[in-house]
Amino acid sequence: MSDRPEFIVEYLEPSAGIEAEPLPDEFSSSRLRHSLLILGAIVLVVIAVIVLVPGLSSLRSRFSGASVGWLLFAVVLQLASCFSYVLVFRGVFCSKMSWLTSSEIGLSELAANSVLSVGGAGGLALGAWILRRGGLETAYIARRTVAFFLITSFANTTFLVLGGLGLATHVLPGSPSWVLGAIPAAAALAVIGGALAAGRLTRRVSRLKVVAEGVEEALRLLRTGSFAILFGAAGYMLFDVAMLGVCFVAFGNPLPPVGVLLVAYIIGQLGSLIPIPGGIGGVDGGLIGTLVIYGIDATDAAVAVIAYRGLLLAIPAILGLPALAVLRRRLRNEAHDIAACAPGESVEVLGRGLVERPAPFI
């Protein structure tokens, strides 16, 4: 969790230009094609292994018996997760932005996370470039980007605390041992406490001042009780967890206990920190391994996770890459409404001198 805000701090250097700034190399067409080719090659290798390796007949039989109806329901859940991401993005950055622009930026970020090998931070960096190219101030983008990351991470850690405590106290069934619930809950509480402490400590380091401001911004936004922010952050994760659960049912496997599914999902997602296109290998192995530790059959877990990961990579990319192409064209033609979210200019206040108006608040 700690490396992603630092990544954004490095990316949002104040010296970067706005008006004529080209698309960064990380998101160039050639880089996207390269990542897609790597991703496609990995997928083909996985399919070939499942089809050709003699010892994997049980996997092949499970996949051949998939329920189309349940898989379609899984697609709907992933679409709901994508919409939730757009909802929290719009809530954090600017509710004045049109739904079209918000959707294009949000879906572009999700596509970047699916195909780029930058440890899961590709979407945030791409969104920062889009907003900066659209006319927003670097300092404003930096604060809100850090706040956005913290708010979405806070949803994960909060549900990890709830799920872990539920398993440890046996309010939620399914954990082989209370320790397997207590440890994740304690770790999540430590992460939350560390993030809050970082807001105070980083103010002493000028280069990390944006992290401290982002923490304060995140807390301020959460205190507003904004439906878009709270529901969006929770829905982005919970719809994704539900899709993983449906992928178990789609292949005739029993649905894991809710607490186990929730805790295993959040722990397994740590594999996305590995800089591999789409997190392939890292997230998959993390999810399967964690599910097995919590008592889920290894074959059941492998089938569900492979199907889940396939949908998770495909749907955001199918939606987001065309959205990015359209948005880039609108940015070149200045046919967007991003600049409407720019913080207000300075005004003269009697007895106080020149005072900057606050950024637009939701």
TrEMBL record:
Keywords: Cell membrane, Membrane, Transmembrane, Transmembrane helix
TM annotation in the entry: 36-56, 68-90, 110-131, 146-172, 178-199, 227-251, 306-327
UniProt xrefs under Pfam families: LPG_synthase_TM
Membrane topology reported for the UniProt record: Multi-pass membrane protein
Highest taxon of the lineage: Bacteria
Cellular component terms per the entry's GO annotation: plasma membrane
Keyword field contains Cell membrane: yes
Recorded coiled-coil stretches: none
Location of this chain's protein in the cell: Cell membrane
Name of this chain's protein: Lysylphosphatidylglycerol synthase domain-containing protein
